[in-house]
Structure formats: C-alpha cells, structure tokens
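Can't paste images in this forum, so I'm doing it all in text. The chain is below; anyone willing to post the predicted structure tokens underneath?
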Amino acid sequence: MDQMVGSKHTRRWPASLAVVAVLVLQLIVPAEVLALPRWVLPALGAAMLVPLVWTNPFHLRRDEPWLRWIELVLLAVLVAVNAVYLTGLIVYLTNGEASDGAVLVKAALLIWVTNVVAFAVGYWEIDRGGPFARAPEHDRPAERPDLLFPQMTADIPGWSGWLPGFTDYLFVAFTTGTAFSPTDTMPLSARVKTLMAIQSGISLLTIAVVAARAVNVL
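Text version of the structure:
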C-alpha cells in the first residue's frame, strides 16, 4: 500500500509475502525445464528469509544494513535461477521436444511471475537507498531517487508527502514486464535502467518466444 509521511512504520510484510510466494512457485516448475534439484532454490530462499522475517516480521523497525544485502543476494539468486529456467525452456523448444502445450504455458507463466515479483522487490530495495532510507520516521538521509513517480512531479491535492510502498514498485515491475518499457514511472538512475532492461529482456523472451510457441502447440 502507499505510504504517507507520518506513518508509524513502513510495512515490510508485502515484500516478504511476495518473495515467499515466488519461492513456493519454484516447487511447481515443470520437470522439463528444471536445471537444478527442485528443493535447492526454496531451501536457499527460506534460509535467507529467516533473519529478515525474524528481525522485521511485519514492519521495518530495526535498521540492519546487512539484512538488506541478504535480500539483494536472494533477489540476484532468484533472477539467475529464473534465467536458467528460461534457458532450459528455450532449449526444450529448440530440441523439438515441446509437444505438451500445457507444460509450456505453465512454465512460461511461472517464469514471468517470478520475474515480475523479483524485480519489484529489487526496485523497492534499491530506490533511494531502500525502504529505511525513504521512511521519514527512521531519520536517515535518503539517496537521490532512482524512480520518478507521478505523485512526485506535481502538487496533487491529497497526495502531499506521499511515499511509494511495495505495491507501487510491484506495479512498476508489472508494467515493465508487460509493456517492455516504463509507463507512468520513469527510471532516473543507470542501475534501475539496467535492471529494467534485464527484466524486459526476460519478459520479452518468455512471452514472444515461449508463450507464442505454446499457443501454436495448443
């Protein structure tokens, strides 16, 4: 949800829940595209989530910089494994073994959803130094914005002191994954532009190559 200046604590549970959902999705990736044992990524992700949830289960109250780095490492692993799954799916297609359209649709959907959620959490953790730096109640100097939201560009009644929440970053990731480009929110920094390019590339391959082939098979 959106955050307003003066909120008591910044919510972290939506981001944690999104990561948990993605890790659960890894358990149902079709065997045809698995390049690693099915339990590896969920186990690694669960191990990394334990200190995050234990320290700040619902709201960001304790600022531990090392926890942010753990989450960024988790996200890098998620993106890397997701790219491996996409590569395996493309190889599966090019080998002429793709005869089950349901498998292709399921695999493409899981890869695409993982892509959106992983990058949403990434944008949430990177923009202006992360949620702790953005939240005024934590009294930390925020870095310069990486993303320019519409609410930041005009004096809109009722939106004074607005701060982006996780759902805003999820929407940015969703539109980047569907339009293959930013829509209402503009990337400002080179690091976010790079992340958006990677996300769009993964999404484009998933939709244009895999999903199109799946429709033909069906």
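The helical segments are 13-25, 40-55, 65-94, 101-126, 131-134, 166-179, 190-217. The longest strand covers residues 3-4.
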